[in-house]
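The instructor's notes for this session suggest beginning with a concrete chain rather than abstract definitions. Hand out the sequence below and ask the class to guess, before any prediction is shown, which regions might be ordered.
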Amino acid sequence: MWKMPCGRKLISPILLGLLLSLFLAAPSLAQAADTACLCNFKVSYADTSQQIGTHCQEFATGLNQQPANPDKFCREACEAKLKLFVTDPRYALDLNIVQFLGDVADPAYNQAQRDCANRAFSAVAGNVAGTKKFTVPVLGVAIPNLSFSEPLKQGQYLTIDFIGQYISGVYQWLLGASLTIAIVMIMIGGLQYVLSAGRGDVGAAKTRITNAVIGLILLLSTYIILYTVNPELTVLGPLRLKTIDPVLAMETVGNEGDLTSGAGSNCDQAYALAQQNQDQCKLAGGFTSPTGQKESCNYHFRDQNYQWQNIKSIDWVAPWDSPIRSPFSGTVTVLKRSEADNPCGNTLTIKSSGAVAYICHVKDFIRGDGTPLADGDSVIQGELIGHVGGRCCQGETPPDGWKAAENGWCNQTGTPCDDPFSREDCGCQTIEQSGNTSGPHIHVTFKGAGPVLTCIKR
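After discussion, reveal the predicted structure:
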């Protein structure tokens, strides 16, 4: 019978190392690293130096003690990490403040976080918008040279590289551990060979050394084997997930633009009561009508029982292609919808000092001078920022669940609009760009600066 007496001796130590390392490397989001670096940095247009964001970012160091030169250590760590934050060559990163955070049990740890955040928010208040911060995994047991980059938000998509970075880090750790075990086995075999040479019994020693060398060769040739089978096996690409704003999706799925679903006297009473509580509005200058029209009394009021405190969305019915003016000063982001995944349609977002307004069903993003808006542009209250859309072309098929599908609202004739970044002569929109709508109007969802009715200025 054929036997492989060496197999168990070859596999056992390496397999034990692999299992042990996998157990030790399992991520735990509940346990934080002992120390961290805190970085305060700016994101700017590289060609114009126009600041578009100041941010505060914390990075785990993987150390449980202070490095010899904390400032140098954190600066190098922050510079390396922040290269992953912005990949667009049009933008530049300026590392502002670096700080080493000690033991997480130290009260100074939380204070340092607050101080950094305050610096970041004070720098952007009123004229720039910070980026959304995402949670990254924190390992229960740190793996050397393994760190996770923050998810990258690009338009409607979120790029997440956690799995690829984790597998890569674990693989490198396992490779190092397995190489160490193999070398130790060769050393033990060599010692066994020397001690057995006098007795002439060196077979076991040779077998141990041979097995260790074979295992070492297999480990080092893993990449070549995988690449030969399929090159894609060696590429650990990130996950690319499409994002949907649940607030906008819920707020725009009903009878958008419909003027018959609310009681006018009740809407006026809700507005009057809200105006008696203007102190709850935290938006300097208030919120002016984006169309010059009075807000529509419809299901946004009715579904909240006309309770002004609970109303966060308003429709403004206005003629097709009529001007949209900024309801307050701030910075904008614009989004052309390419899929019917959100009933908001083309979206224009304005941010200022914690206030955020999402404007839906936009026809185009053209300013008064004829140029298109771009992400990060500053606008002032009353400035022309686009034109009213909300006419769904005949033949378009709204998704099930939208009122546009239930009521047959996609019935407008005319040339479909294609590019919201140009001033087109067109008569209707595709369902992706119009969103769920009964006719020309804009929808606004407002949050972050108090109840919307307390801020509106008629």
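Then share the key points. The two ends are 95 Å apart (CA to CA). The first strand starts at residue 36 and ends at 45.
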